[in-house]
Design brief:
single chain, 468 residues, FAD/NAD(P)-binding domain, alpha+beta, 12 helices, oxidoreductase activity, acting on paired donors, with incorporation or reduction of molecular oxygen, NAD(P)H as one donor, and incorporation of one atom of oxygen, Alpha-Beta Plaits, 3 domains, 20% strand, Glutaredoxin, four-stranded antiparallel sheet
């Protein structure tokens, strides 16, 4: 995702990938509303939709099933179930199509930086020189360790086995047993025909403690033992596609930037997978960082723009860590947590509570501090703007190029001096009760109004000095 964003702005980009071939593991199984919007903003959604399935169902907060809220502030009020492997493939094709270079089988083992750039040392002895480097290398990030960036938080206290495999037992028997076990153990499940693979089941079962070496995949026998312990049967599991384990550790990098090196995705934060937020959080990190890093490389970034990546995204990740901690507590089979779960289940019958939690999980409730002041300014400031229909087309059709956008229904405003960075669309929407809005390349509103002088005061803050 990040490589695609950088290439949209003409930045030469190389992706170093340790794996020789794409992984077959597909842990994440869906895109939430904000990530779907991101794909739509870049003209990618039509590639995703035919390969996924849309769902508008509750149950994303700690598995508490409630109706999907009406009239969410998005044109994409659904979850797109799509395998992570497909998402990775489509984004790789997008980045390569824009000119990014992906080098597989290249493992980073060292890095140094100075005032001009970063030198990356690879396992094969190769050295690469770049102006910036971003570690998108997961929870056990080598980049983060080489930087010496702290990763405080809590270690895993429970562990869960996860894998795709075939099952010999009759489907009706499986469904009945799973329903009975889940009355007390919500971290248990057997999902049939996962990702459209007929006969392949995704098995989720609590592990027997926390493994000393969590980099080692569990065995099929370990799955069998745990299934028998919780369900009294192993369902005749066989022919595994892949097996893994995950814990409930929560950690957040102390800083997302150290000089010319930055962190994104799981390299910057890890948390339990409750609510399906991990992949989405990483995509949204990249979407926030891409245009800012490109602006720095291309020489027009105002002071502090690149640092705003940490300022904006660090609190978002902290909030995800908090809500996943809460969800894990609500999955605990002990009497205390079950009592809290029953109370929250009642509270979620209130439309406001249900909506609030879904907006949190899907990230459409995120609002950045864009300098709106104590009074908060216009209600749109800091928020991403949903896709709204215009008189000619729709908003997101105008954002595919990854530039800023002035949506102007007055026709009297101007972005002269910034037209190399901002598109000026003179149009309006019946769904938008404001004369004009200025959007950053990631779709968040940084100005709303109709006064040209006021607009001129905002443009340099986000888009640098006017061109000569």
């Amino acid at each position: 995702m990040l490589a695609g964003e950088l290439r949209l702005a003409g930045v030469r980009t190389v992706v170093l990938e340790r794996l020789e071939e794409p992984t077959r593991q597909s842990r994440a199984r869906g895109l939430h509303a904000r990530s779907i919007e991101v794909m739509d903003q870049r003209g990618l959604l039509e590639r995703f939709l035919p390969l996924g399935e849309r769902f508008a169902v509750g149950g994303f907060f700690a598995g508490i099933t409630k109706e999907w809220p009406d009239r969410l502030d998005t044109a994409h009020s659904y979850v797109l179930a799509i395998p992570q492997t497909v998402t990775e493939r489509l984004l790789a094709e997008h980045a390569i199509g824009l000119g990014a270079e992906i080098r597989r089988g290249r493992e980073l083992v060292g890095l140094t930086q100075d005032d001009q750039g970063v030198t990356a040392e690879l396992a094969d002895g190769t050295r690469l020189r770049s102006r910036y480097l971003v570690g998108c290398d997961g929870g056990r990030s080598v980049v983060r360790e080489l930087l010496g960036v702290g990763f405080p938080g809590e270690p895993a206290t429970v562990e869960t086995l996860l894998g795709d495999m075939e099952v010999a037992e009759d489907p009706e028997v499986i469904a009945a047993v799973v329903a009975e076990v889940r009355r007390t153990q919500l971290r248990f499940g057997v999902i049939p025909d996962v990702d459209g693979a007929k006969g392949v089941h995704r098995v989720v079962v609590p592990a027997d403690g926390v493994a000393e070496d969590r980099t080692t995949a569990p065995t099929l026998d370990e799955f069998r033992r745990q299934l028998r312990a919780f369900a009294g049967t192993d369902f005749g599991i066989h022919s595994p596609r892949w097996l893994s384990r995950f814990g409930d550790a929560t950690r957040l990098a102390e800083r997302y930037r150290a000089g010319r090196v930055l962190l994104a995705g799981d390299a910057a934060h890890i948390h339990p997978p409750t609510g399906g937020q991990g992949l989405n959080l990483g995509i949204q990190d990249a979407f926030n960082l891409g245009w800012k890093l490109a602006a720095e490389v291309n020489g027009w970034a105002p002071e502090g723009l690149l640092d705003s990546y940490h300022t904006e995204r660090h609190p978002v990740a902290a909030d995800v860590l908090d809500n996943t901690r809460a969800q894990m507590l609500l999955l605990d089979p002990e009497p205390g947590p079950r009592s809290v779960r029953r109370l929250l289940t009642e509270l979620m019958d209130l439309e406001e509570v249900n909506r609030y939690l879904i907006e949190k999980i899907t990230a459409i409730g995120v609002r950045y501090d864009v300098g709106q002041g104590r009074e908060g300014g216009h209600e749109l400031l800091g928020r991403r703007l949903r896709d709204v229909p215009l008189k000619r087309g729709r908003l997101y059709e105008s954002t595919h190029g990854g530039r800023g956008l002035l949506l102007d229904r007055t026709g009297r405003l101007s972005v002269e001096g910034w037209s190399d960075r901002i598109d000026h669309v003179v149009d309006g929407s019946d769904e938008l009760d404001v004369s004009a809005v200025l959007l950053r390349p990631d779709g968040h509103v940084v100005w709303a109004g109709e006064d040209q002088q006021d607009l001129l005061g905002t443009l340099p803050v986000w888009f640098g000095a006017a061109a000569a």
